[in-house]
Amino acid sequence: MLHLRVIVPSDRSQAVVDLLSADPAVTHVIVLPGAGRVPPGDVVLCDVVREGADGILVALREMGVDRAGGIAVEGVDVTLSAAAERAGRAAPGLGTDAVVWDEVARKTGEETRLSATYLALITLATIIAGIGVLLDQPILIVGAMVVGPEFGPLAALSVALVRWRRPIIRRSATALLVGFVVAMAVTVLSTWALTAAGLIDRGMLLADRPLTDFIWRPDALSWVVGFLAGVAGMLSVTSNKSGSLVGVLISVTTVPAAANVAVALAYRVPDEAVGSALQLLINLAAIVLAGVLTLLVQRLWWSRITAGRQPRPPRPARSGRTRAEVGSARG
How many Cα atoms sit within 13 Å of 240 on the Cβ side? Predict the structure, then answer.
């Protein structure tokens, strides 16, 4: 369930209240006249089940509430309410299958900014993966996958392609391109520095590495794994189950492949550099394609659910009369 806090100009307040009150997916409607200060207006609070939230948000935006006032959305972990249970029964479908597009767009849109933190994380992850490649240590590869923040821009790119938001497409692509280029450049420098310090050498890259050589030898399974990871990652975003995102990050080889490119370039091993670059491109393309297809299927699936199943009217609340009152009424 989601909690909505709406600030609306007083002359539109009644229309918003009527909209919310008429929708069976909405409950706990509260009106605070004149409580809004910046921007000024009435404050309307309500709870809405996830399966009905997208329609409500679209209707509020069509009324211009987001421009004249404001809409805030936050998740509700626990709700103890018979009214909330009735709202859940009245709304079609299940909350875990519903896609709240504004929520997804905002969540992924934050990951498109080329921030210092993003560059630092992807650079550190690539350096760690580069050391893991040379030492043939899968645990370091897994750690780099968890640290790497690249799935954020990839998810944002998928959402932007489905909704065709060109500015977000450009920002996401820029974050990915600049992030990987900077990370690989710094990894090349760190490889040279560690070599000069005598901690690593070119022979480590050329030696047999049975545990990590898959990183620069792409095959059909590379595409399959990347595609499946992209599906799982997008489902974790749309269903608001971020816990499964960690499992996605350790299932693909984007950051490790970029690290192998950097190390191979530092030691002038072109065949590994080319193979790792191909692995990186395969995984990036597979994840984006999987994300786009997942969103399209979800949108089609949800539109059929909402179109083919009319919301059930909420059950009337019990009167709460005592047995004595019932008996006297019968008498």
Answer: 19
CA distance 164 to 239: 21
Instruction: Assign domain 2-96 one CATH number from 1.10.10.10, 3.40.50.970, 3.30.70.120, 3.10.20.30.
Output: 3.30.70.120
- Predicted confidence (pLDDT) per residue in 265-305, tens digit: 999 999 999 999 999 999 899 999 999 999 999 888 777 76
pLDDT tens digits, 71-109: 999 888 888 888 888 888 877 767 666 777 777 877 777
Q: Choose among 131, 126, 127, 262: nearest CA to 209.
A: 131
pTM given for the model: 0.77
The crossing angle, in degrees rounded to 10, of helices 166-196 and 116-135 is 50
3-state secondary structure the chain: CEEEEEEECHHHHHHHHHHHHHCCCEEEEEEEEEEEECCEEEEEEEEECHHHHHHHHHHHHHCCHHHHCEEEEEECCCCCCHHHHHHHHHCCCCHHHCCCHHHHHHHHHHHHCCCHHHHHHHHHHHHHHHHHHHHCCHHHHHHHHHHCCCHHHHHHHHHHHHHCCHHHHHHHHHHHHHHHHHHHHHHHHHHHHHHHCCCCCHHHHHCCCCCCHHHHCCCHHHHHHHHHHHHHHHHHHHCCCHHHHHHHHCCCCHHHHHHHHHHHHHCCCHHHHHHHHHHHHHHHHHHHHHHHHHHHHHHHHHHHHHHHCCCCCCCCCCCCCCHHHHHHHHC
Could you check whether 2-96 and 104-307 share the same CATH topology?
no
Domain boundaries, the chain: 2-96, 104-307
For domain 104-307, give the fold. Glycerol uptake facilitator protein (1.20.1080)
